[in-house]
Amino acid sequence: MTASGHPTPAPGLLPADTTEDVRARRPTMAVLPIGSFEQHGAHLPLTTDTVIACTIAREVAAGRAVQLLPPLTVSCSHEHAAWPGTVSISARTLHAVVTDIADSLRKSGIGTLILVNGHGGNYVLRNVVQESAGSGVRMALFPGSADWDAARTRAGVQTSGHTDMHAGEAETSILLYAHPELVKEGYESADCVADDRKHLLTLGMSAYTESGVIGRPSLASARKGKELLAGLVEAFDEYAALLGAGTEAHD
C-alpha cells in the first residue's frame, strides 16, 4: 500500500524494451494487452482486467520474437457504470485506437497483431479482427472461448465460463497466483451466482448483483491460477504457429 492509501502497482506489467532491444529482436508480430478500468467487487482492483491481460501477454510473449506493447487500460465497461470508479470509452473509440495501433505497427514493419483481451465486454474487438482482412495487418483475438474452456479444465476450475462471469473463481485465482498483493480479504465469502442474465446488456450488471461479483471467488486458489496461465500459454502455440511467431534467437 502506498502512503496515499492506494494499492501498490503490480510489478513487471509494462515492457522495458529499448529501441535497440526491438531492433535486435526484429519482431514481425506484436502483442497488445487490452484491459479495462471497472469494478470487480470489494476484493479485486479496478485494474483487474488490465493486470490479467498484461500477465497473459507477458507469458505468451516470453521467448518469442514479438514486440510486447503496453496495455490499453480503459475500454468498454458501460455495464458496470452503476459502481463508482468505473470508467469507459465508446466501442467506436476502442475500434479506432486499435486500428490506429495496427496501422502504426504496419508502417514500422510489423504485419501481425495479437489482441490479448482481458474484458469480456469488449465485443467490438471481434469486429476489429474481422475487418483486418486485407488491411495489411493480420490480427487475432486471444484467448478465445475454447482456449479459456481448455485452461479451466486443466486447472480444475469448478464453475463454468457462464457462471464465472466477473471477479469469480478464474480471475481471483490468476491474481492469487500472479499478483496476490492485489487480492483483498473477503473473497472467500463473496460468491454471487446469477446464471439468468438475459437482459444484462439492457439493464447492466446492477440488475443481477449488488456486490458487483458474478461467480464463486470462494473456490479460487493460486494453484488454479498457475494452471490457468499455463493452459493459456499452451493454447497460444496454435496462434503462434498460424501467424508465424517464432521463438527468439539467443547468442
TrEMBL record:
<comment type="similarity">
    <text>Belongs to the creatininase superfamily.</text>
</comment>
<keyword id="KW-0862">Zinc</keyword>
<feature type="region of interest" description="Disordered">
    <location>
        <begin position="1"/>
        <end position="21"/>
    </location>
</feature>
<protein>
    <submittedName>
        <fullName>Creatininase family protein</fullName>
    </submittedName>
</protein>
<dbReference type="Pfam" id="PF02633">
    <property type="entry name" value="Creatininase"/>
</dbReference>
<dbReference type="InterPro" id="IPR024087">
    <property type="entry name" value="Creatininase-like_sf"/>
</dbReference>
<keyword id="KW-0378">Hydrolase</keyword>
<dbReference type="InterPro" id="IPR003785">
    <property type="entry name" value="Creatininase/forma_Hydrolase"/>
</dbReference>
<keyword id="KW-0479">Metal-binding</keyword>
